Amino acid sequence: MLLLSTSINTLAYAESTEDVIKYRKDIMKSLGNHISVIAANLKGKVSINEDILTHSKSIFLTFSSFNITKTFPENSGPSNSPNTKSLDNIWYEKEIFSDAMKNSIEKAQNLVLAAESNNKENIAKSLGALGKTCGSCHKKFRKKKN
Ligand code: HEC
Fold it and tell me: Is any atom of ligand 1 closer than 6 Å to the C-beta of 58?
């Protein structure tokens, strides 16, 4: 009986690990999608320019409400699941990881300001600066594509 309940717990735990991994990937993908929406307008692929501010704010909101502890819980790293590209240093270089997040929040805020001023050149610059912060966190904390 003890054995059975242990294995059920393990199963339930494994399931929630997968759930939180999927969950954080969904948040990350949403960030990527907001950036694509803004970029499509900057490149003139569409002219729905009022969306630039909306999606800039969405990025800012997403980053500033990011709960690192809940979204990247201990035991949801590469040794716990083959479905994550998160690297172990997220959990032993916590401060650097959260600083990387703060850096993105700051650059997202600049993007909102640029979008409010409606100056496309500034928006493009701010978007580029934000994109760099995504890249630098990924470089340090995300496994490269195989
Ligand atoms: C503080 C670090 C950090 C920042 C900042 C960050 N990311 Fe990520 N991102 C990660 C990590 C870690 C993963 C790997 C998640 C996993 O597989 O568990 C990831 C994964 C992703 C993925 C892949 C999701 C999937 O389906 O596998 C995308 C897309 C992405 N990020 C986009 C972005 C964009 C766009 C930004 C900037 C606007 C950004 N990220 C900022 C850490 C970060």
Answer: no
Residue type (1 letter), 8: I
Q: Kindly report the average pLDDT of the chain as a whole number.
A: 92
Average pLDDT over residues 25-54: 98
Given the CA of residue 108, which atom of ligand 1 is nearest to it?
A: 38
d(CA 25, CA 112): 23
Q: Are 134 and 105 in contact (CB under 8 A)?
A: no
Quick check: 41 pLDDT over 80? Answer: yes
Residue closest via CA to ligand 1's atom 22 equals 28
Do 53 and 5 meet the contact criterion of CB atoms below 8 Å apart?
no
Residue 139: CB within 6 Å of ligand 1?
Answer: no
Q: For ligand 1, is residue 101 a contact (CB within 6 Å)?
A: yes
pLDDT digits (tens, 9 = 90+) for 58-93: 999 999 999 999 999 999 999 999 999 999 999 999
pLDDT range class, residue 22, cuts 50, 70, 90: very high
Question: 134 in ligand 1 pocket by Cβ < 6 Å?
Answer: yes
Contacting residues for 126 by C-beta, under 8 A, at least 6 apart: 107, 110, 111, 113, 114, 115
